[in-house]
Structures are given as structure tokens and as C-alpha cells.
Design brief:
This protein is an alpha+beta fold and 206 residues long. The chain contains four helices and nine strands. It has two domains: 94 residues, no CATH class; 74 residues, no CATH class. It binds zinc ion. Zinc ion binds next to loops.
Length: 206
């Protein structure tokens, strides 16, 4: 979170991350029994113990009203049957009308991730870092303590050798790909730097 509730408006951009916006998760609210028609409830959003946003909601049968200070906002709900009985709720995104479990408050409006043009933090990480993280996670599953490439600690008890070998192979592939991606990134940056230097006027002798 950040910037919310501070009274300043932050223009959403391609770089805006879902983690920075108040999320409304209708599945969680349903699980908590909050979607009782006619019974208002309050939700607060905090960051490091600090209150960043607070809203009152009034549920109806197929609607959830956000009781904002100015204009109340109307969020439509849709219910779909579950396999084992009962029904689960969805938001219908006010921007695109698609069913969504989560909406994010962007510019005093709840919108889906696409309409708010929000990205997950992981999508902004460089490919090399993302692949290295994947390799480390795989290595951790086979006792590598999350450290690669050659400190695998042997097969954990009760794991099949075939599973172990498969995970080890995937970790190695991810690691090699991460090294390659990082090399490409360095080459790309050097090329960019070269172009920048090429555009500079030649140094004059004193
Ligand atoms: Zn949408």
C-alpha cells in the first residue's frame, strides 16, 4: 500500500502495482459472512499498522453499495453455483462487466486489475530475477535450501527419486535460463549506454 488515504491522487500507469491499492475480495467477505442483505459492514485497509482507507458497505441481494462520503458507488454481484452446493459471489467489474473475485480501488472507483491497469509486482521483475527465483524455489523443494546451483543437499526422505530428478532438472533449466536472461539484460544495457555515449559531443582538449 502507499499513497492511499493521503489525499493525493496518483495517476495509474503501467507501473502501478496491485499491491499498492486497496483490494476488495468478495470471496473473503462471503466466507466471513459479511454479505447479508441490508446489514452494513465496515472494512479498513492498513499498511504497517497505519490506517490508509476505511469504507462502509451495504450489501443487497445482487449488489454491494460502497458508502462513500460523496457519491455512493454501486458494485453489482453475481452468484454462481458451487460443485458441492451453495453459491459463490463475484463482482461484476464496473469497467468491463467481467466477473471478478477481486476489485481494486483506483481513483475512488473499484475496478478489476485490467481496467485499473495494474500489474503484479512479479510482472515487473526482470526476467532473469524471476527465473532465478523460480530455480531457488525448486531447489528448496529438494533440500537445496533455496541456494543454487550446486549446493543441493540430497533427496528429502519419502520423495521418489524420479520426482527428485525431475525437480532437479527443472531447477537447473530455470537457473541456466536466468543466467542467460541476465547476460542478455547486460548486453542490452551496454548497447543502450553505447548509444548514449555515441550521442555525446566529443571531449575537447583543454
Ligand atoms: Zn474490468
Amino acid at each position: 500500500m502507499g499513497g492511499l488515504g493521503s489525499g493525493t491522487y496518483r495517476r495509474p500507469s503501467r507501473q502501478a502495482r496491485v499491491e499498492d491499492f486497496c483490494a476488495a475480495d468478495v470471496r473473503v467477505w462471503h466466507r466471513e459472512g459479511l454479505l447479508q442483505p441490508g446489514r452494513p459492514f465496515t472494512r479498513i485497509w492498513t499498511e504497517n499498522g497505519r490506517l490508509v482507507q476505511r469504507h462502509e458497505f451495504l450489501p443487497g441481494r445482487d449488489v454491494l453499495i460502497v458508502l462513500r462520503a460523496g457519491q455512493p458507488e454501486r458494485l453489482c454481484l453475481e452468484w454462481t453455483p458451487c460443485t458441492y452446493g451453495g453459491a459463490r459471489p463475484w463482482f461484476l467489474c464496473p469497467g468491463c462487466g467481467t466477473r471478478r473475485a477481486k476489485l481494486f480501488e483506483v481513483r475512488d472507483r473499484f475496478l478489476c486489475r485490467s481496467c485499473g491497469r495494474l500489474a503484479y509486482q512479479s510482472q515487473q521483475e526482470r526476467p532473469g530475477d524471476r527465473l532465478a527465483l523460480r530455480a531457488k524455489r525448486l531447489a528448496a523443494r529438494i533440500g537445496g535450501g533455496g541456494v543454487l546451483p550446486n549446493t543441493l543437499a540430497g533427496k528429502p526422505p519419502r520423495m521418489h527419486w524420479r520426482t527428485y530428478a525431475l525437480i532437479e532438472q527443472r531447477a537447473a533449466v530455470a537457473w541456466a535460463a536466468s543466467v542467460e536472461a541476465r547476460q542478455r539484460e547486460i548486453i542490452r544495457r551496454c548497447a543502450g549506454l553505447g548509444r548514449t555515449l555515441g550521442n555525446l559531443p566529443p571531449a575537447r582538449d583543454q
